[in-house]
Amino acid sequence: MGDVFIRHIELLGYEKRFFPSQHYVYMFLVKWNDLSEKVVYRRFTEIYEFHKALKEMFPIESGDINMENRIIPHLPAPKWFDGQRSTQNRQGTLTEYCYTLVNLPHKISRCLHVVNFFKVRQDDMNPVTDSQIKKPEVFLLPKDAKKNPTDITGPIVLQTYRAIADYEKSSTSEMALKSGDMVDVVEKSESGWWFCQMKNKRGWVPAAYLEPMDGPDESEEQEPNYAGEQYIVQKSYTAVEEDELTLKEGNTVEVIHKLLDGWWVIRKDETTGYYPSMYLQKAGEVNTSMKSELRNRIAPPRRSTIRNAKSIHKQSRKQISQETYRRNSKKYIQSQRNMKENLQNKAKVIIEKNEQEENKPKAQPAVPPRPSKDLILNRCTESTRRKIL
């Protein structure tokens, strides 16, 4: 076995292709030990042949000798004719299969047979197509489909975006762009990197370089939340621009505005500024692998740093100034302080009133007047009457 191995395999969905004839391929996101991520496409017949060969290589673990020793997952054989329904219904099984496969003992999960099957092929990067045939239809797997794969319905229509400037890729997993290129967005990540496809090319693209065809994309972004959500800094970053913040790993911050380009507005104490979202993790969430993965990651470029950007829209994208963020954030913090002080003052007044009530001298009961001699003689007993005679 070599040093190369797979850390994780995720089923993204499947494609319906029309060349050289109609068929279906599954899309897998494969994460490798060098922190690279590749998207590969495999037919189910290929996957099943791979599965059969794996069982022959490990007869004990496949249960051929004793079924009690089986740890290699089951995989149903392909049907005589695989249509869209069977392709769709099989996604839950494939998701579980990939999860179990990667978590098998290293002698199986890291063997050359597994590694070579999921390596990127030439047709993964440049699938054979015919310009006269309509482009593939993409069916993405919902995030919660592991629990209920039957929720997958019709084809998901991918959004088309336009590149506003040239972009040169810096790694093999990215895709270069020319100003005016049209791309279909397959996945939008909060990190500011979007997975896109353009004709025969696929790869990650900075969201800052893309604009929707129907107008500025403010509607896709959340409104600022000056109450803030608590996040923990997972990787230190030194500010390059004046409106960015310099923070160290382990710092606690509050996110007040999540932006599509992966640069979020955060608050540290009473200071606000931009920070790469991919270096943040929500407080309380557990992700032990994140720190090691971030060491070789770079933050995507910001919208404000793109030169020679050319938009097709007359109305430009609205941007909130950093001064507005600071002013509204301070206003919110002050209102919270005032509310807290008012509650404390009310509590103090109640306590003082209670103390005053407790310290007041208690009124002594009045001594009743002594009854008259005639009243005693008329109403009291014989023994009491004798005492006054």
TrEMBL record:
<dbReference type="GO" id="GO:0042554">
    <property type="term" value="P:superoxide anion generation"/>
</dbReference>
<dbReference type="InterPro" id="IPR001655">
    <property type="entry name" value="P47PHOX"/>
</dbReference>
<dbReference type="InterPro" id="IPR036871">
    <property type="entry name" value="PX_dom_sf"/>
</dbReference>
<feature type="domain" description="SH3">
    <location>
        <begin position="156"/>
        <end position="215"/>
    </location>
</feature>
<feature type="region of interest" description="Disordered">
    <location>
        <begin position="351"/>
        <end position="375"/>
    </location>
</feature>
<dbReference type="Pfam" id="PF08944">
    <property type="entry name" value="p47_phox_C"/>
</dbReference>
<dbReference type="GO" id="GO:0016176">
    <property type="term" value="F:superoxide-generating NADPH oxidase activator activity"/>
</dbReference>
<feature type="domain" description="PX">
    <location>
        <begin position="4"/>
        <end position="125"/>
    </location>
</feature>
<feature type="domain" description="SH3">
    <location>
        <begin position="226"/>
        <end position="285"/>
    </location>
</feature>
<keyword id="KW-0728">SH3 domain</keyword>
<dbReference type="Pfam" id="PF00787">
    <property type="entry name" value="PX"/>
</dbReference>
<dbReference type="Pfam" id="PF16621">
    <property type="entry name" value="NCF1_PBR_AIR"/>
</dbReference>
<protein>
    <submittedName>
        <fullName>NCF1 factor</fullName>
    </submittedName>
</protein>
<dbReference type="InterPro" id="IPR015039">
    <property type="entry name" value="NCF1_C"/>
</dbReference>
<dbReference type="InterPro" id="IPR036028">
    <property type="entry name" value="SH3-like_dom_sf"/>
</dbReference>
<keyword id="KW-0677">Repeat</keyword>
<dbReference type="InterPro" id="IPR032136">
    <property type="entry name" value="NCF1_PBR/AIR"/>
</dbReference>
<dbReference type="InterPro" id="IPR034909">
    <property type="entry name" value="PX_p47phox"/>
</dbReference>
<keyword id="KW-0963">Cytoplasm</keyword>
<dbReference type="InterPro" id="IPR035757">
    <property type="entry name" value="NCF1_SH3_2"/>
</dbReference>
<dbReference type="InterPro" id="IPR051228">
    <property type="entry name" value="NADPH_Oxidase/PX-Domain"/>
</dbReference>
<dbReference type="GO" id="GO:0035091">
    <property type="term" value="F:phosphatidylinositol binding"/>
</dbReference>
<feature type="compositionally biased region" description="Basic and acidic residues">
    <location>
        <begin position="351"/>
        <end position="361"/>
    </location>
</feature>
<keyword id="KW-0597">Phosphoprotein</keyword>
<dbReference type="Pfam" id="PF00018">
    <property type="entry name" value="SH3_1"/>
</dbReference>
<dbReference type="GO" id="GO:0005737">
    <property type="term" value="C:cytoplasm"/>
</dbReference>
<dbReference type="InterPro" id="IPR001452">
    <property type="entry name" value="SH3_domain"/>
</dbReference>
<dbReference type="InterPro" id="IPR001683">
    <property type="entry name" value="PX_dom"/>
</dbReference>
<dbReference type="GO" id="GO:0045730">
    <property type="term" value="P:respiratory burst"/>
</dbReference>
<dbReference type="InterPro" id="IPR035756">
    <property type="entry name" value="NCF1_SH3_1"/>
</dbReference>
<dbReference type="GO" id="GO:0043020">
    <property type="term" value="C:NADPH oxidase complex"/>
</dbReference>
